Amino acid sequence: MAIKRIHSGSPYEPKIGYCRATVTDGWVFVSGSTGADPVTRTMPQDVREQCRNTLDVIGRALAEAGASFSDVVRVNYVLPDRADFELCWPILAEVFGDNPPAAMMIVAGLIDAEMKIEIEVTARLPGTQG
Q1: Which of 40, 41, 77, 129 is deepest in the core (most CB within 10 A)?
Q2: 8 Å CB contact between 22 and 5
Q3: What domains does the chain contain, in order, with CATH numbers?
Q4: What was the pLDDT predicted at 6?
Q5: Strands 72-79 and 102-107, how do they pair?
Q6: pLDDT value for 47
Q7: What 8-state DSSP symbol labels residue 5?
């Protein structure tokens, strides 16, 4: 069983020893992703901007794997401040809309104090049976 590894260029990937996503046996596992601007690598102060950036990073990883947000079956959210989660709901509803995955939200600290949200997803490649 071959494993495809997808890298995003995040400076944390080589420091910690992980990749943005792995694809194997019809599944796509996207690592926890945070909200730095994908071009400038700066961290917005607003949780909504971080949420949008995070989803952009995840969306690119899913596309490289051959999937999209409609293929996501599980999502985990981690936020240091539970009050920030509700601010993200409209964005998340827009992205997952008609194809909502199973979900869980955890309140916990993140690797950098500037980070306000981390999102991890699991998707099933289209046309995969099992």
Answers
A1: 77
A2: yes
A3: 4-124 (3.30.1330.40)
A4: 94
A5: parallel
A6: 98
A7: E
Quick one: pLDDT at residue 130? Answer: 61
DSSP letters along 66-87, please? Answer: T--GGGEEEEEEEES-THHHHH
Name the region of 49 (left: φ>0; alpha: ψ -120 to 50; beta: rest): alpha
Structure tokens at 108: 């916990």
> Are 124 and 73 within 8 A, CB to CB?
yes
pLDDT value of residue 120? 98
The alpha-carbon radius of gyration of the chain (Å, integer) is: 14
Q: Is 54 helix (H, G, I), strand (E, B) or coil?
A: helix
- Give the residues across from 120 on adjacent strands: 76
Rounded Cα distance, 44 and 61, in Å: 21
Give the closest residue to 35 by CA, choosing from 90, 111, 96, 123.
111
**Mean pLDDT per 10-residue segment, the chain (130 residues):** 88 88 97 90 95 96 97 98 98 95 98 96 88
Q: What is the C-alpha separation between 98 and 72, in angstroms, rounded?
A: 12
Given CA atoms 37, 8, 109, 121 in this order, what sign does their dihedral have? positive
